[in-house]
Every structure is written in C-alpha cells, then in structure tokens.
Amino acid sequence: MSLSLRTQQIIYALRQLAEEYSFGFAKETRYFPELGAQSERVDAEFLLPNGVPALRFEIDNEPDRAAHNRLKIFGNVYSLSTLPVVALSVVHGSASTRSHSYPSELLEHGFVTPPRFLDELSVDSSSVDSSAKQLRAWFNQLIEALAKAPEGETVFDIAEHYQPLVANVSLAVAAAHLQMHSELAWFLASQHYVSVDRAASLTVALARMLQRAGMHRDASLALATLRDRVHGTGRLSSQTEDDALAVELLLQTPALNSGQALTYLSEVLGRLRAHYHKSKFHWRKGIVEVVAGSLFRTEDILHSYVADMNGSRIALSNAALVRTIGALSAGRGDPREHAATYARHEQSLLFLDESQPDGTVHGVVAGLYLRVMAEISCGNFGASYLLGKLDTFRHSVGIPRAADGLREITHLLPSISNSEAPAMGERSGSLADLLSHGRKSVLLRLCIETNEVCGL
C-alpha cells in the first residue's frame, strides 16, 4: 500500500469521526483564501455549524513536509476569526520515526502559544481501524479536558491559562482562541458531552479578558450571547453566575470622577458573593474619594483592601495607582514617588515572572503615562516627548483607552483622551508576529527610557 493511500485512509477515518460527533468536515481548504491559488492548504478540518473550523489536521508521512506543515500556520496574513482550538499534526510512516526537531525548538524559543493550540499525534496507518482508534482516543482526551476541568476551577483559573499569552502582547490571539474554545464547548454541550456550566465559564472568561483590555462592546456582546444561550442564568452554578455578574457590573461602572460613582460602587458590593469580586469595586471607591479630596477615607479604603488581599503585589499596585491619582489631581503627596511605585509594581507583574506573568501590557503603559505626567507636573518638561512615544506604542498594539489602568486615569491624560487605538480584532498581521516577543521588547525599552528620563 502506498503512503499516499494511507494518508487517504487517515482522512477517511477523520471524516468518520467528524460524522460521529456531528461536525461538518472539509478537506484541502485554503489557509489564506485571500491568496487564491497561491495559498497553502490544510488537509482536513472539523467545522462547527457556522462553518468555522474548530480543529485542523495536517497529515504527513515525510519528515520535511511534516516540519513545514507544522509551522505554516504562522505564515502570511492569518485570519484570527478562523483560529482553531487545536492544529493537530498527524504523522505516520517515516515522519513518525524520523521527525525533525527544529519546529519544536523554534516554537519553544520564539513564541507563546494558546493552550492546546499545537499538538502532534503519531498513528499506525496500516489500516483504517488502527488509525481511527488512535484518532478517536486523542479526540476523547480533548473532550475530557474540556468537560472535566479541575474541581473548583473558576473563570479566573481559566484566565490564568491564557495570561502568559496576554502578557506577551498577544491579546488578539488569546481572545480569538478563547472564543473558539468557547464555541467548541457550546457545540459539545448541545450534545451533552460538556456541561452548560463549563461552556458558560469559558464565555465568561472571554468577557472578562475583553473587559480588562478595554474592549467593552465585545465583552458585552459575549455576555449577551451567554444569556441567550442559557435563557438567563438559571442553569448556571452560583459561582459562574457570580463571575458573570462581576464582569457585567464592571462594564457598567460609571466614570470614577462622576457624581454617581460612589453610590454605584457601594451598591454593587451587596450583589456579589465572592470576596475577590467585591474587592475590585472596593478599591475603586478609593479613586472616587481621593478625587473628591477625602484623604482619610481614601487611606481607610486602601488599608482595608490591601489587608483583605493579603498584601499581594496586585493589591499594592492598585493602591499605588489610587495614591498617584490623588497626587496628580488633588496634590496629595509626591506624584513622582507614587507613580514610580505603581509603575514598578506593574512592570514586576509583567516582566519578572516569565513562567506565569500576572501583569498586563496596558497596566505597564498606564504606569508609564503616570510617570511622565508626574514628571511634567513637577516641572520636568523635557519628559513631554515620551507622551508621543507612548501614544504610538499604544496604537501599534491596539490598547483602547478603556483598558484597566488607563480607564481609571483617562481624565488626567488629555494626550490619550481624543484618540482611540484600533480594536484588536480589526488589526492584521501574521500569526508569528502576533505571537512573538518583539513588541514586549519595545515596551521594555520604553520602560528603560522612562526610568532614565524620570529617574528611579
């Protein structure tokens, strides 16, 4: 039997598997339709009812071709609207016994990829039955991973899996993959392979990711879709309901320098169950109080908040943000000292723990804006040119002014109040560019330059 016929047998086994689980099936489709006949092709795809590929399969029996196909997903301009949950490399024949190591080496040293995004499976292609058995086992493991999340896993645990990707200036890829991850879970939930609550938790995690990044319209749409799918939240666990409500209430928070803010923040505390959710609104009350000039109430709020959060770096960073706002807007303390403290915390959260960074790019950018504004407020007008550099970087990576950190200080920063960065989903580029560390390096250089101009 020729190897080409064995490849066809594997495709046949995949088609049978797709039919068994009610997926649509396609083969030899173009990766990049805009290139027409010049586009690379993918061997097989499992399609959701809307025609979007949830799983993609490359089948190879020759080592060189297998290596090429594993990396070709990163080429040219890739549409994030069709980012699969998994791109599986199925190898057999000599590709199984004499595989090249360089694809894995490149991926390990140059990229951070979404959870479960790239996978590889070696199959016995001597018969359709043997191939089908191994492919079915792989797919069942994928379903099990979706259906049987670790006990007690919350929306925020899901978000942790994506945080390294978000931290490396790849929010567009993280959101696109998490959305497809959610859509696959809802499809499997419709067939009772995955619980509705599990699928919902992925949607809420997506909404939270978008809300934090300032993409509020997309976050609201995700929550509205969730409500439509579950006909309210009656079918969700109390934990998932609370997670969804926290995101919704954050989206509805009025401007923190408005007259309605304090009443709103106080009222929502009684609607939430989890202490962590309550804390997000509690510390923001400090912004309202410090803008109003209530220094003692501000410090009471911050001390209780930091204590409740066990002195975590995230809590210390948020407290420093409030104090910086007070120093700049009401002359409460040294703005340079507080801004430097906030920036130092945000940079540590993003840069110091490469294995599991807790920071965000927009948090670091907010810190740099505040450092420059504090320096200017103290008479160092030579720092003004940095505002233009920060604006350029913010636009280049698509950070809206509604992103957490920037949202809280927009009223202090006229330089960003009249210009909006393009939405993440509207920007294009190769997947390799979006997943690389290049723009994080640019941000690090901005941090260093800001330190040189503003001092430490």
List the helices and strands and how they pair.
Elements: H1 3-20, E1 24-30, E2 41-47, E3 53-60, H2 63-71, E4 86-91, H3 94-97, H4 102-110, E5 118-122, H5 128-147, H6 155-167, H7 171-189, H8 196-212, H9 216-230, H10 238-251, H11 261-269, H12 275-291, H13 295-308, H14 313-330, H15 335-351, H16 361-377, H17 385-396, H18 406-409, H19 414-417, H20 431-435, H21 438-454
Parallel strand pairs: 3-4, 4-5
Antiparallel strand pairs: 1-2, 2-3
Helical proportion? 55-70%
What average pLDDT do the residues reach? Answer: 84
Report the sheet with the most strands, covering strand number, pairing sense and barrel closure.
5 strands, mixed
Count all strands and give the number: 5
Query: Number of helical segments?
Result: 21
Overall domain count: 3
For the largest sheet, list the strands in their spatial order: 1-2-3-4-5
CATH topology of the largest domain: Trna Endonuclease, Chain: A, domain 1
Overall structural class, as computed from helix and strand content, comes to: alpha/beta
Distance between the termini: 70 Å
Shape by Cα distribution? globular
CATH architectural designation of the largest domain: 3-Layer(aba) Sandwich
- Low-pLDDT runs of 5+ residues are 424-428
Give, in order, the helices and strands.
Answer: HEEEHEHHEHHHHHHHHHHHHHHHHH
Report the sheet-strand fraction. 5-15%
Radius of gyration: 24 Å
Class of the largest domain in CATH?
Alpha Beta
Task: Note down, in words, how this protein is organized.
This protein has 456 residues and is α/β, with parallel strands linked by helices. It contains 21 helices and five strands. Strands 1-2-3-4-5 form a five-stranded mixed sheet, with helices on both faces. The radius of gyration is 24 Å and the shape is globular. Residues 424-428 have low confidence and may be disordered.
